[in-house]
Amino acid sequence: MILVNEEPLGWHEGMTVRDILRARNYRFPMLVIHVNEVLVPKKDYDTTLVPDGAAVKVIHLISGG
Amino acid sequence: MSQLVFDPSKVMDIDYTQRTEYLEGLEAIKAAHKVLKEITYAPSLPDKGYTNRTLYVNVGTHEITEKPVTQQMKDVFIGGRGFGLYHLWNAVKPTTRWNDPENEIVISPGPVAGITQYAGTGKSLVVSLSPQTDIPIDSNVGGFYGPLLKFSGFDALELQGKSDKDIILFIDGVKGIIRIEEAPTDPVDSHVLAEVLTHMYAENEKDLPNISVVSTGAAAEHSLIGMLNFSFYDRRRKCVRFKQAGRGGIGTVFRDKRIRALVVRGPKVAGDLNHPADPETIAKTGIKYHKEIRENDGTQCMMRRNGTAHIVEIMDAYDLLPVHNFQFGSHPDVHKIDSSYWQQRCTQHTVDGCWYGCSMACAKGADGLVLRTGPYKGHMVTVDGPEYENAAGLGSNCGVFDPDYLLELNFYCDTYGICTITYGTLTAFVMECYQRGILNKERTGGLEMTWGNAEADLEMMHQMARGEGFGKIAGLGVKKMKEHFIKNGWGDPQLINDIGMENKGLEYSQYMSKESLAQQGGYALTNKGPQHDEAWLIFMDMVNKQLPTFEDKAEALYYFPLFRTWFGLNGFCKLPWNDVVPADNASQPEPHKVPEHVQNYVDLFSATTGIKITKEDLILQSAKVYNFQRVFNIRMGKGLRLHDAAPYRSLGPVTKEEYESRAERYDQQIVTEMGLDPAGKTTEEKMALHREWRTGRFSKLMDSVYTRRGWTLDGVPTLERLKELGLDAFPEVVDVVKQHLS
Ligand code: SF4
């Protein structure tokens, strides 16, 4: 189990940042993502593994509006 | 009034982008013009962003005078919306209503407006007493009018009085002539009128881009929701296009004054017309931004390809798209009107900015639409947009998922002079009333206002333009429709009030705020009424969970409305701030504020005016105007806590099906937020629990926000706050506040 923006999400072996975006249907392109307070650059979303129990922040910037 | 006749048999032969067919009657229209008043004046260019004078025109008495811009005006009100509110305050009394002659329309672009080196600097702010809200409304609009007005010598234009005949105000900023002309046979609707006037007042082909026209259309005469079109000449398409000052019915005030159009002819635009204090900094900041757009837009919001419509599918995925009058947040047919469709439908071979130098270039045009209904049936037209608000408001919120009908609704809103946001929300309300039996065919005069019935929707709009039937009632807006339905005994008053999405008399813009308390505040705790350009916090609050406490939400509802107010003081578009970000933005502190862009704005203001400011000063500048506007509202009889109340549909689920569409989430909230067990409770009982909790926390939010803003719990700025902001220098402002402090 991990926490994504304070809400629980099931964890699986080999889970990447991209998997989280898919699971949450986060399609907005301008994101700031921290895994356990470490910034993950956009180019590393597919390769960055998320450990079990991680606290993940997916910050959507203000857009549209 | 005459309408140019178009022969539908010619439809495939015409060059639809040049619209030459509209110009056939031009000479006759021109010959019918009669000069009612003409003066000469000395045109001048701005010095450090200001021309240091404003223009006053009384369309009733034909008085035309110049007024100086004082140092106090610049220090306290800056320009744009600030100048608009200042002039309006001096023009009206607490008893003035929108259709009194003393009501004004003030147009002001702001000191930085008009520079061509940075993106999004062509905006004007239009301020008037609104027919919908009875308080000042401000609308931020692109197009060329504001900058060309400034380059003709004026930081603002005040229009007062009422004419007894249709007039055109022409400002020739090259020759130094201001003329009021009677215009007895000019076309009515904007897409024809602006084309005709642009050609009428341009001296030759090359002069066309130096003309800008402000106009409205037939619906502004018969509704309270009239909008103003500000034109810009599209050199590539060789036609006139528009940006809109949509909200609050300023187009209705315009027609009530019997202004047919405003026309300005400015000098040829060049990069240095603003005579800034430090042109190098402006150029450097602009180059940096243009590079950023070029490099990042393709992987970020793709504004240059999609415009703001890029968020249609995102809002749908996040359950935030308004569907069926804000009942639901997504719909399976959204793919028919999402950005992948608009990408193909909008012409992509051209750079589409609404002012010179806007590299964000989001002003998308859908060319070649053949209209299926109304007075222009058979015409082939270019439709500007649809932007997100149009796609959501005219589309999903009314269940219209046919993109051609959506474009046609958008076209007629534009040419008839109707605010698309307002029209979308009021039509969604009508459709829900029809769904729930509050309205029926008999009450709508035969219009079958079922979800997605675009033909009935268009017919209602045509009726609005003709001033007939149910369209005339709809054109009063949601607030007055609610009163009308309740007075007639149509439906349950509580239900009608719950589902009518207006606050202060203005219709909500197109975001589903039920699950974001901060966004509920961003809508209802505004000065002018619920509009997304004040505080759009739905991602920060609901998706990111960045604002967990009431204090966090109050802080955001302090900062963002003030930050965004600043754009309107200076002539900026908000989109270049937040719809592209620097590559390293994620690693900056507070990346959601886009700190590098905030610094750009600080630099641009300082470099234009020569006045050094910091990012904290930027907020202070806005706070002066924002609090002044709040006091103005109070002076006009609104602006207190009771006027900030939100319709329950914006806070929570009004109906059983709304609750059940999110039952899991709502049941869970009963456990986590209320500490109760939903098991065994009926949906009605659970809805009642939610209502109590949701209205209670909205009230608590009001307390927190008012406190943070330096207001009493009744929403009145305190004397201490006025003093901090230097507003105690205006005894009338202090007097208004004193009456409300016990
Ligand atoms: S971003 Fe779009 S609306 Fe804003 S100034 Fe540029 S083209 Fe106009």
Structural description of this entry:
The complex is a heterodimer of chains A (65) and B (742). With 65 residues, chain A is α+β, with helices and mostly antiparallel strands. Chain A contains 1 helix and 5 strands; from the N terminus they run ββαβββ. Chain A has one helix spanning 17-24, and strands spanning 2-4, 7-9, 31-35, 38-40, 55-60. Chain A has a 5-stranded mixed beta sheet, with no helix packed on it. In chain A, a hairpin with a 2-residue loop joins strand 1 (2-4) and strand 2. The model of chain A has no long low-confidence stretch (mean pLDDT 95). Chain B has 742 residues and is an alpha+beta fold. In chain B, strands 1-9-8-13-10-11-12 form a 7-stranded mixed beta sheet. A 6-stranded mixed beta sheet of chain B has the order 3-2-7-4-5-6. A two-stranded antiparallel ribbon of chain B has the order 14-15. The model of chain B is unreliable at 1-6 (pLDDT under 50). Chain B starts with 25 loop residues before the first helix and ends with a helix. In chain B, strand 16 (502-503) and strand 17 (506-507) form a beta hairpin. The radius of gyration of chain B is 24 Å and the shape is globular. The site of iron/sulfur cluster (SF4) has 15 residues of chain B, from helix 21.
Q: Which molecules are bound besides the chains?
A: iron/sulfur cluster
Largest sheet of chain A: 5 strands, mixed
What is the strand tally of chain A? 5
* Total count of strands of chain B: 17
How far from one another are the termini of chain B?
55 Å
Major β-sheet annotation of chain B: 7 strands, mixed
What's the total helix number of chain B?
A: 29
Overall geometry of chain B comes to globular
General form of chain A: globular
Structural class of chain A: alpha+beta
Estimate what percentage of residues of chain B fall within beta strands: 5-15%
Strand order of the largest sheet of chain A: 2-1-5-3-4
**For this entry, what is the oligomeric state of its chains?**
heterodimer
Low-confidence runs of chain A (pLDDT<50, min 5 residues)? none
Can you give the helix content of chain A as a percent range?
A: 10-25%
Sequence stretches where pLDDT stays below 50 over 5 or more residues of chain B: 1-6
Q: Structural class of the secondary structure composition of chain B?
A: alpha+beta
Kindly provide the radius of gyration of chain A, computed on alpha-carbon positions and rounded to a whole number of angstroms: 11 Å
The end-to-end distance of chain A, rounded to whole angstroms, is 33 Å
Instruction: Estimate the mean pLDDT confidence of chain A.
Output: 95
Task: Give the rounded overall mean pLDDT of chain B.
Answer: 95
